[in-house]
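Late entry, 2-phosphoglycolic acid complex.
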Amino acid sequence: MKYIIGNWKAHMSLSEMQSWVNTFSNAVKSDSATLNKLVNHQATVIICPPFPLISLLKDLLSEFPNIHIGAQNIASVAEGAFTGEVPAKTLKGLVKYAIVGHSERRHFFHETDEDIQKKIELCYQNEIQPILCIRGQYDAIDPRVELIAYEPIEAIGTGNNQPVDEVLTVKQQLNISLPKRFIYGGSVNGNNAAEYIFKMEIDGILPGNASLNPHEFLSLIKLIP
Ligand code: PGA
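Prediction complete; structure with ligand written out below:
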């Protein structure tokens, strides 16, 4: 079973999302093989939209049982007077997954391993499965986390995806084995995704840019054997 995790980042207006869903749903429904993959749990698809779109996207995609909604982040505090933050408690029941530790959060918002650790804890307290993004061996991995997304900084948003053999070397160095899942992210697109998806040792992909186009995102799901 492979994971395809779309990270929309700070993109998508309400109308852009509606049009994304229309295009995506129509294309899936007219393609029974892909529809079967989604129903038969060959693929777990997770889409991580900006917070305000979570609820509506969840409703709009509810006809596809194996497409889940994830948050791109959660607050490192349980709740309180922290204007603008979205705590795990608020997301409980709305999302099944949350990305934590994305390198853009670590860089632009100065998140530390300690913050990320708190977020992981809060995810578990609120029945949310964390998808922990790490940049390499130097980032801490909580032993409980099952979904680990390796995203080398130089590959994110640059078009320079890391060659699959290098990705596998990092996996070995990290000593990741089942039940942990090892996911690759960084400039994954319709042209290179197969290299990662077809590797037994790689449990999925985390596309950013490529998830914004419903046709391209669907083309990634179609690759799943
Ligand atoms: P990208 O983003 O696919 O646009 O490189 C991936 C990510 O940052 O999660």
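The radius of gyration is 16 Å. Will revisit in the morning.
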